[in-house]
Amino acid sequence: MQAMSNYQVKVQPQGKAFSVQQDETVLDAALRQNIGLEYGCRSGNCGTCEVTLLEGQVNYPDDDIPAGLADPDYNCLPCQAIAASDLVIEADLVEQALEIQSHTMPCKVQHHEQLSHDVMRLMLKLPENQRLQFLAGQYLDFILPGGEHRAFSIANAPHDDELIELHIRRIDGGKFTDYVFDSMQDKTVLRIEAPLGTFTLREESIRPILMIGGGTGFAPLKGMIEHAFHVGISRPITLYWGVRTERDLYLPDLPQKWQRQHDNFAFIPVLSEADSSWQGRSGFVHEAVMQDTANISDYDVYMTGPPVMINAAAAAFEEAGLSREQMFSDSFEYGAQNDKS
Ligand code: FES
Q1: Is 42 in the pocket of ligand 1 (CB under 6 A)?
Q2: Distance from Cα 333 to the centre of ligand 1, integer Å
Q3: Best probe residue, ligand 1, of 43, 304, 311, 338 (max atoms within 8 Å of C-beta)
Q4: Torsion, CA 176, CA 181, CA 186, CA 187, rounded to 10
Q5: Closest ligand 1 atom, CA of 45?
Q6: Alpha-carbon separation of residue 26 from 8, 15, 226 (angstroms)
């Protein structure tokens, strides 16, 4: 049998190189060889993995340009791209998240609790004597019977790892979230792959931190904030939580408690459809950030939530001078087939 030939991918400016087979994506090849390309959705939608393609050719499934690729003339999306030649790409590498290998494992629903009209908190337990090693902000995939995956951010911090906490938003027509809300019982055994993703706190930075969460985008930020408190990060952290109406703030007391307990933490909820009884901020969450922030280029900005929120925020912040190296995002693809939350 003839071996399938490989192409070489070189990552600049680090000069690291890895091989990619003709039947795997550039991202899969990189992860297999522990090369820290950033990624999020792995489905071509969020744009997190976008890198500059300096040399070479790539193909995409069905020859379609993926939705998340902002600049097809000069860039590529490694999570979808199949190499058609040797490649040279330009990318920032993240090492820390990839030091932890992801695994597939069973877990049990320890308990679940409805936090609001459309958000369920799930607490998962791994088999006896097992703990999940992960970094704050990462996510896991449920592997459904039949092999489909559903991604959810981990909402707790690694030091508090007895159970894994998820915040699951009900999606119209989402078969997995319908199951979670309507029929899932405690003690149910599910299969997960974890940990995944490179949306993690850059702890070595000295810049103040802005966090912007839309809806259940609060979940990974909660994990990061609790981790930051635990390791004693003293940089200012401001959390903006954007939701439609007040009832969508599904854990309103928790960030208020953090604010009372930590001088370096501030919480600003922002409602896009506030009624007249609301005393706080209203409008688009990124506009509230812009109104409050004189020099956004001084900050590290972490954003999680629906793509429309992240894209609007990223465009406004970039226009105001924030460099892409200081923007970190995790985009949630809500939809019946891909109900990441
Ligand atoms: S577009 Fe590649 S990881 Fe989301």
Answers
A1: yes
A2: 11
A3: 43
A4: -10
A5: 1
A6: 10, 16, 34
Range of the domain at 259: 209-331
Residues 129 and 61 in one domain: no
Express each pLDDT in 77-131 by its tens digit.
999 999 999 999 999 888 777 678 888 999 999 999 999 999 999 999 998 877 8
Q: 258 Cβ partners below 8 Å, 6+ apart?
A: 225, 229, 265, 267
What's the CA gap between 257 and 314, in Å, rounded? 29
The CATH number given to whatever domain includes residue 32 is 3.10.20.30
- Report the domain count for the chain: 3
194, two tokens: 């974890």
Is residue 143 packed enough to be buried (19+ CB in 10 Å), middle (13-18) or exposed (0-12)? middle
In a domain, 203, yes or no: no
> How many other β-carbons are positioned within 10 Å of the β-carbon of residue 42?
22
Ligand 1 atom nearest the C-alpha of 39 is 3
Please, are residues 123 and 183 in contact by the beta-carbon 8 Å criterion?
Answer: no
pTM comes to: 0.83
75 and 136 together in one domain: no
N-term to C-term CA, the chain: 44
